[in-house]
Automatic annotation (TrEMBL):
<keyword id="KW-0132">Cell division</keyword>
<dbReference type="GO" id="GO:0034399">
    <property type="term" value="C:nuclear periphery"/>
</dbReference>
<dbReference type="GO" id="GO:0031145">
    <property type="term" value="P:anaphase-promoting complex-dependent catabolic process"/>
</dbReference>
<dbReference type="InterPro" id="IPR036322">
    <property type="entry name" value="WD40_repeat_dom_sf"/>
</dbReference>
<keyword id="KW-0833">Ubl conjugation pathway</keyword>
<dbReference type="Pfam" id="PF12894">
    <property type="entry name" value="ANAPC4_WD40"/>
</dbReference>
<dbReference type="InterPro" id="IPR024789">
    <property type="entry name" value="APC4"/>
</dbReference>
<keyword id="KW-0498">Mitosis</keyword>
<dbReference type="InterPro" id="IPR015943">
    <property type="entry name" value="WD40/YVTN_repeat-like_dom_sf"/>
</dbReference>
<dbReference type="InterPro" id="IPR024790">
    <property type="entry name" value="APC4_long_dom"/>
</dbReference>
<feature type="domain" description="Anaphase-promoting complex subunit 4 long">
    <location>
        <begin position="238"/>
        <end position="436"/>
    </location>
</feature>
<dbReference type="GO" id="GO:0070979">
    <property type="term" value="P:protein K11-linked ubiquitination"/>
</dbReference>
<keyword id="KW-0131">Cell cycle</keyword>
<dbReference type="InterPro" id="IPR024977">
    <property type="entry name" value="Apc4-like_WD40_dom"/>
</dbReference>
<dbReference type="GO" id="GO:0051301">
    <property type="term" value="P:cell division"/>
</dbReference>
<dbReference type="Pfam" id="PF12896">
    <property type="entry name" value="ANAPC4"/>
</dbReference>
<dbReference type="GO" id="GO:0005680">
    <property type="term" value="C:anaphase-promoting complex"/>
</dbReference>
């Protein structure tokens, strides 16, 4: 055979582990490799390693890879049912999807040729996003707490899900081991979940491959259909009519982008709360470090508690011998100033996180949820997709409660800071007197209010009992810390003398038009309720769309042995690999699917053609088998050649007639 007619190896590269899956980037010179150890390695065409993504746990395997059509995000599906969306720049996980069963396939498809000019101009009336005009810009979080990765810019805070510049809808198709297909717009918004067993009344096992046509009208799946004995199974092709996605693709795009912004805000709020907990723990650590030795001595001598010693000093003005020794030799004046400055800084950090971050998040969440509420009331456009006004109103109420709880925490922090400053100012005066040092005139006198602040600080922040075995000083900072725990408030604020509370109690009808307060819940609990309510609102369209999709037919292609029992974490020996392309011919969209009958080398492949439009309620399929072998010299004018081609077209027409 001539050299020009052969495939020629250009280069050979080596990897350290066996590769199970590889996928080229659609836009850049990048290839993603999945290894037998569950790692994902990204290489350039020159074989320069870009990054390596470790598996999320031991014995967890990669079951699928998919690039977002713009090549900026890589989806990785694991045997545990987790799908991670990774930033191609640094492998950071920007979003994670958790499904109940192991992943078997991933495909990411972008819409094409769906925006005709007449409808496009009409849709601009309601799809323009003007939120930047009204909402405060999110501030980057403090890098000292390790919440923001090195090199992350301010723009990344606003675009945590990497959705900027997404002008066309794209859909991530996810299949699992129990015959369920999940569709996610932009990989984050749940569009539909379809249980193939229920939809087809056929027991479906693994979903090997799933492909969505680029006009979003037809979903083609290659699945394992199990027989009654569960020892044998068929490889079948299954079609789902998804024309609802095509007819409402603009609405789905708007919903997905709004949901992406909401998810970014929730992630930002969660990171903020985590930083607040770290700042709170810093205060506890600072106080515990200074008071630990003093608390241990008190415990050994069985002579009272740290709290009692401070209260006696406040009431009588005379410290115990242990406390005097601690103040003069352990804490000292310089140590007290350093400790006070450190704790005040931590208090200020918590206060700034509430003011500059949490409250901005709350305002933005209320804004976006209010937009979704308005969309849900437009039934012809959005209500038909399952967007429930009541569910969104519940989420809106939860967002309002979150804002109110943030304001409440801010008020508690203000009060705690007053008490803290009064306590350290009083302690500084005590140390100066014990040291016979001059006292600044502005600190020499304390008002009754100052004494009340000190007494309240001791009451709030020192436990009555301390654990001698652990050496804890008994300092707890409970007033602020209770808001950061996942439990009810131990000391909810007293609203008995609050005029606004009195008005609400005397006007029950007014409560229905205001956000609920959740007086006894912590900030962490309120935030969890907010996430749950948003999830409930978002899952409504997924359920509605999934139930409305039409099953267009299932056809057996060939048989294969099923996987043995007790090996549910392993795929069957045959996993079909397909490639798909949507082609428009004379205004008719057709989905072409090519696949092999064997994992190993074979002499033929199959090409399936399906119209994305239903014909009399059914999907029309045409299939041809192409054989790869040496035919020998053929004289096209001979009768034998004519018979050979006539036989080929007769086989093609037979397959076409059977599948119809």
């Amino acid at each position: 055979m001539p050299e020009a007619g052969c495939f020629r190896q250009i280069e050979e590269k080596h990897v350290s582990q066996e590769v199970t899956t590889m996928l080229w980037s659609p836009k850049m010179d990048l290839v993603a490799l999945a290894t037998v150890l569950g790692e994902v390695v990204l290489h350039r065409l020159s074989w320069q390693k870009v990054w390596t993504l470790a598996p999320p746990g031991e014995e967890i395997k990669v079951r699928g890879l998919a690039w977002r059509p713009d090549g900026k995000v890589l989806a990785v599906g694991y045997s545990t049912g987790t799908v991670q969306l990774c930033d191609v720049e640094n492998s950071d996980c920007i979003h994670s999807i958790t499904l109940p069963h192991g992943i078997t396939c991933l495909q990411w498809v972008a819409e094409q040729n769906l925006n005709d000019e007449s409808n496009a101009s009409q849709s601009e009336n309601y799809c323009a996003d003007t939120s930047d005009t009204f909402l405060p810009k999110l501030q980057p979080l403090n890098k000292s707490y390790g919440t923001i990765a090195k090199g992350q810019s301010e723009d990344n805070v606003e675009d945590g899900k990497k959705l900027k510049g997404q002008t066309e809808l794209n859909v991530l198709v996810i299949g699992n081991t129990l015959g369920t297909i999940s569709l996610y717009a932009y990989g984050i918004f749940p569009v539909a979940t379809i249980d193939m067993t229920s939809a087809t009344n056929t027991k479906i096992g693994n979903v090997y491959c799933g492909g969505l046509s680029q006009d979003l009208r037809l979903l083609t799946l290659m699945v394992e259909t199990l027989q009654g004995d569960a020892q044998t199974s068929d490889i079948s092709i299954l079609s789902i009519d998804t024309s609802l996605l095509a007819s409402r693709h603009r609405e789905l795009r708007i919903l997905a982008l709004k949901f992406g912004q909401i998810l970014t805000l929730l992630s930002y709020a969660q990171a903020t709360i985590r930083q607040m907990k770290e700042a709170w723990e810093d205060i506890l650590l600072e106080m515990d470090t200074k008071l630990r030795k003093f608390a241990e001595e008190k415990y050994k001598l069985v002579s009272g508690t740290v709290s009692n010693d401070f209260l006696e000093l406040l009431m009588f003005g005379t410290p115990s011998s242990e406390l005097q020794s601690f103040l003069l030799h352990e804490l000292t004046e310089k140590g007290l100033k350093k400790l006070g400055h450190s704790i005040e800084t931590s208090y200020s950090n918590i206060q700034k996180l509430v003011l500059k971050h949490l409250q901005s998040v709350g305002q933005s969440l209320v804004y976006y949820l209010t937009e979704l509420k308005g969309m849900s009331l437009w039934y012809d456009r959005f209500g038909v997709l399952g967007l429930s006004p009541q569910c969104i109103q519940d989420a809106l109420n939860a967002a309002g409660t979150f804002m109110l709880k943030s304001v409440e925490l801010q008020q508690v922090i203000d009060g705690s800071m007053k008490n803290f400053k009064a306590f350290f100012r009083w302690l500084y005066v005590v140390i100066q007197r014990l040291s016979n040092e001059p006292i600044p005139p502005e600190l020499s006198k304390m008002t009754q209010q100052d004494f009340n602040f000190v007494a309240e600080f001791l009451k709030e922040n020192f436990t009555e009992e301390q654990d001698g075995s652990s050496g804890s000083a008994g300092f707890k900072l409970e007033r602020v810390g209770q808001y950061l725990k996942d439990e009810d408030l131990a000391h909810p604020p007293d609203g008995a003398n609050n005029p606004w509370t009195d008005l609400l109690n005397t006007t029950p009808l007014l409560k229905d038009s205001l956000y609920p307060c959740a007086e006894n819940k912590s900030l962490t609990q309120v935030f969890s309720d907010l996430k749950d309510s948003i999830d409930a609102a978002v899952n409504k369209p997924s359920m509605t769309i999934g139930q409305s999709l039409f099953h267009g037919g299932i056809y057996c292609l060939f048989k294969q042995p099923s996987e043995t029992s007790g090996k549910s974490d392993k795929l069957p020996p045959y996993k079909p690999t397909i490639t798909q392309q949507t082609v428009s011919t004379n205004g008719q969209m057709n989905l072409f699917t090519a696949f092999l009958e064997s994992n190993s080398s074979c002499e033929h492949c199959y090409i399936l053609r399906q119209s994305t439009q239903l014909t009399h309620g059914a999907v029309v399929m045409e299939m041809v088998r192409i054989e790869f072998k040496h035919l020998g010299p053929i004289d096209l004018n001979s009768s034998s050649a004519a018979r050979r081609f006539e036989s080929y077209w007769w086989q093609l027409q037979s397959v076409k007639a059977i599948l119809k």
